[in-house]
Design goal:
The protein is α+β, with helices and mostly antiparallel strands and about 190 residues long. The protein has 3 helices and 4 strands, in the order ααββββα. It is globular.
């Protein structure tokens, strides 16, 4: 489906707001915080500061605004008061935000304190793999629509090139690095 310039602007606004959530998180001392506390702070920021809606909360009965995947949890971990981030942890925070009917969805991996060399290598390697995958994505033919089967997509869906510059992590438009994905510098400062 092709978006109008006004819709693309609204998509970009949702992406910009989500990027500001990660900027907010970048300034928080995550060590010593529970993943539930991070969830609550993100919710307050999205609702009170950005006047937006945390899109995952309530979806399919999910009660949180983010997924928190700590250490061995691959993805979609659930925030918990008992899960406190400490020195050496890696955590991926996956957040969705809706504004004006458009949803932005992205995640970022944080390295807490002094992280082991194998953990840093894991983060760096997955980051590199992400960009190898993104670089392999090609636009669908101009005649492709969401109803046109594509042999490379599950369910016969085609990728439609939208050319948006929104900061969302949508595979259909990743022509440059989104502002929110895995930290640009996986090595601790």
């Amino acid at each position: 489906m092709t978006k109008s310039p006004a819709e693309v602007a609204l998509m970009a606004e949702s992406g910009r707001l989500l990027a500001s959530v990660f900027t907010h998180l970048d300034g928080l001392p995550l060590a010593g915080m529970s993943t539930l506390e991070i969830n609550d702070r993100v919710e307050a920021f999205i609702v009170d500061q950005l006047n937006a809606r945390p899109a995952s909360k309530g979806q399919y009965g999910y009660g949180f605004v983010l997924n928190s995947s700590r250490n061995a949890v691959v993805c979609h971990g659930v925030p918990s008061a008992d899960e406190v981030l400490g020195d050496g942890d890696i955590v991926n925070l996956d957040i969705t935000l809706e504004k004006n009917g458009f949803i932005a969805d992205s995640s970022k991996t944080y390295l807490i304190g002094t992280v082991s060399a194998p953990a840093r290598r894991l983060v760096r390697t997955t980051y590199e793999a992400l960009w190898k995958g993104v670089s392999a994505v090609r636009p669908a033919p101009a005649s492709a629509t969401s109803a046109t089967p594509s042999s490379g997509m599950p369910g016969g869906r085609a990728i439609r090139w939208c050319g948006s510059t929104a900061a969302t992590a949508s595979v259909a438009r990743c022509t440059r690095r989104p502002r929110c994905c895995i930290s640009e510098n996986p090595e601790p400062a």
